[in-house]
Amino acid sequence: MGKLFDIVKIFLFAVIIVIPIHAFLIQPYIVSDNIMAPQYSKGDIVLVSRIPYFSNEFQRNDIIVFRDSVNRKEKHISKIIGMPYERVTVNDGILMIKSNESIIYKQDLALFGTTVASLEDLGNLDEHEFYILGNKWIEGVSGIIDSRFIIGKPVITIFKAK
């Protein structure tokens, strides 16, 4: 009877304490690629705060962890460079983020070793969209993301792979 009671206590502890903390406060994440190297490299383990997700407090240059929009089991890490209502254009390989026609952010995509259409206007981001870009260009991990796919912000690295 004593062992059964101990098992029930452990189960209740998990349900009452651990699961809500994991769902609403903090989650571990293993970095799956080198898009944010050298800050975060493949194999690093970081703790991700969920609080910014619930408070919707994101700013330009925040590093975020997010779910892939196609394969929701995959998670990635990247940096926010474009905010809601800003305009994203690519002209001659130069990515520009504009607000009220003034340039807020400018990046030569050739630095990432990629070639992009000479003129591409991705339009204005809507109220729930951000434009993300890592320290390296990886298609599918760089681009427009809906805020509902954002998990949170990394707050501490608990293991460095290299």
TrEMBL record:
UniProtKB keywords: Hydrolase, Membrane, Protease, Transmembrane, Transmembrane helix
EC numbers for this chain: 3.4.21.89
Subcellular location as annotated: Membrane
Family indicated by similarity: Belongs to the peptidase S26 family.
Record's catalysed reaction(s): Cleavage of hydrophobic, N-terminal signal or leader sequences from secreted and periplasmic proteins
SUPFAM superfamilies named among the record's database cross-references: LexA/Signal peptidase
Residue intervals of the Peptidase S26 domain: 5-99
Protein name, UniProt field: Signal peptidase I
Source species of the chain: Candidatus Ryanbacteria bacterium RIFCSPLOWO2_12_FULL_47_9c
InterPro entries: LexA/Signal_pep-like_sf (IPR036286), Pept_S26A_signal_pept_1 (IPR000223), Peptidase_S26 (IPR019533)
